[in-house]
User: Fold this.
Amino acid sequence: MLSGSERRLPISERLLSPDRLIEQYQAARTIRNRAAMVARRRRRAGSAGSVAEARLDQILDQYSDETVFVHIGLSDINAAFEGNPFEFIVDKLDEQFDSILTPGFTPSFRKDDGRVYHKQYSKPRFGTFSQLFHSAADYRTDDATNSILVRGPYRFEDCDHHDSWGKSSCFGALDDDNVQYLNIGTDWLTASQLHYTECFRELPYVEMVDYDGVIYHDETTHEEITQRTHEYQRSVTWNRAKVADDLAEAGVLDRYNCNGLRIFAFNAREMREALAPKLATDPYYLVT
Assistant:
């Protein structure tokens, strides 16, 4: 027999509420997807083999937009082509496009002891290409967590730089302009614009948060800012393989495999609009 201090809880208190059951179910789905994506990365065959330069030219010639937003994997470009991989791919992109854009993200601004963003000296966090491109860029947006590096005349003058994923943000402008995206040498479909899609649709596992800090425009000019950006309520991983398959089937994603060098091409707004029916049916579609 239980003592008074060991009173058994009534069934009504022990059972999870419907909302809590749904929350646990969605969490399990996202965990399974993360594990599956990790396993797929480990099974990757290896670096790309040699690719004829003319083949890359042939692919790039299919895209005539003035502006391109790129995610670049230098390791596979180095394996596929002769010479310095960074200089090689930037020269190729310069020949084809007037403006080249790439992420200059600085998540360190989110940390309590790191709330300073210096447009010149804050080093992009993700990828060797972005770190090298920083010195080749002509312009960097004022977004303290999710800046964009620009080589060429494209600008974001009428945007709210301190609302990373809002409709009036820099990424909102890319959506409005339906900017061309290219992934060259990436293992999977890579798209900063997916963050914009998540926030545009107010998906349940993403929340918007504000970070107060300081931006330095140059050596001395600085000001206090509040940066509004996204934060995930739990660890999630996009199911890039599924998303790529569905976008290709919808006719908004071009995919190429040149002896292991993978290339993906799509346009910003077309991608978001193609994903809308999937997300309307299942808000966790991207991460399960």
